[in-house]
Amino acid sequence: MSDPNGLVYYRGRYHLFYQHNPEANVPGKMSWGHASSSDLVRWTEHPVAIAHEDGEDVYSGSVVVDHRNSSDFGVGNEPPLVAVYTSAYSDGRQAQSLAYSTDAGMTWTKYLGNPVLDRASNSFRDPKVSWYQTVDGSGYWLMVAVEADARQVVFHRSDDLKRWTYLSTFGPIGATEGLWECPDVFALPVDGDPNQIRWVLIVSLDPGRATVGTSTHYFVGDFDGIGFTAASPDEVQRLDWGRDLYAAVGFDNVTHGRRIVIGWMSNWNYAASVPTFPWRGSMSLPRELSLATIEGAVMLVQQPPVELSALDQVADRFSLTAFDLDSIRPIEGGRQYRVDVTFEPVNADEVGLDLFVGGGQTTRLSYDVRAERLTLDRTRSGETDFEASFASIDSAQVALRDGALQLQVFVDRTSVEVFAQGGLVSLTEQVFAANDSAGLAIFSLGGLTRVKAFEWTPLGETNAAVSVPFANRSEPASIEDR
Ligand code: FRU
After folding, report:
1. The pTM of the whole model exceeds 0.85
2. In testing the pocket of ligand 1, which one of 1, 3, 56, 209 has its CB within 8 Å of the most ligand atoms?
3. Residue environment code for 318-354, b if the CB has 16+ CB neighbours within 10 A, otherwise e
């Protein structure tokens, strides 16, 4: 799997479609795979939802619930679900197409009038559609998509999802190389104040293979029904500071104004060569977004949704009461757990956690107290040599708050997701450690640290026995162009 597609909540289920090759674990024959969940935690896999056909791949896109049956695809009183995806034709052209479901997302029919929006472009893709409500109570369908090669987001509107009118273009901004992909746009209150609404435009950037690779970014600004204006156009923010969060977009139709995104946990630099078998590619944890004012700037904050606590193996959880630390202290490890820890450095240079420890391997999450930088080092994490840019050291600026650094770290069999200072900074990376490299240690180097709180919670039902994720290695056959 690669990009999440068509994230939508409908009739008590979250649907997660995704870029998927039904025939191999490398990109090709791109289709929409499908899984659904009632709680964002336990997912059920379904048959391929929208399939590739000869001459036409089904690239990324979105799903909306057409409550008013504006598309006329509905049957009876049941609103149709409408998927808007990119038809990537074998002659290179990319245009937007529709498919619809009248059975709550389980089966899909391609619209005979496809494509519905064609700009005679070879890099017009990744439509994300949502309902834009105007002040007079009416509204229209709003589509954000990219002209990927031009590094632009293009806005279109429609009343029936079939006929689209051009509204505006945003970008290019920043880098002069590479691609823009998988946009999303939505409004959120700032600091929880419903009278202070700002718009967020998410864009995934692919700067090219000679770089650290692909990552998800965002702009904060305003949308007036036609165009998006960034508050500080030169300042594109990173959604995540690790190497493995791409194409992150949000669920449509979620109740209570919740904005929940999921990203693809990989990087185009090595997506087709990570050492897993038979699966390849996975999604990040869902993240619930909010906007907060941090030192005068409005920033996205990401938090794992409360539903995730369903995975907590509470009986086996353990906590340590506040203690002083001036060395490396091994503690309970595992391969599926969460650590919640708060460090108050006294005179230490560096504090942090060693993850996936064993047999000479370690993945170090460390915080440089003076530089206020949080770093994830996976150069000694296990299998790293399948692609040159995988053995990485990535870092983000994280200010101490009242002298403290708070970390929430989710460790899964082949991944680490770090949320620092309540989700102000996140860092997501894949790690391919040996199966028994399951140690965990907490450290304070160069001086003393007060560990104010420490809690270790095993996750899932199978924490004790870890299955081997890449026991039967196979080499990728061929890597088709995406
Ligand atoms: C992003 C992307 C999209 C495209 C899809 C094809 O990862 O390149 O732009 O729609 O993947 O699989």
Report:
1. yes
2. 3
3. eeeeeeebeeeeeeebbbbbbbebbbbbeebbbbbbb
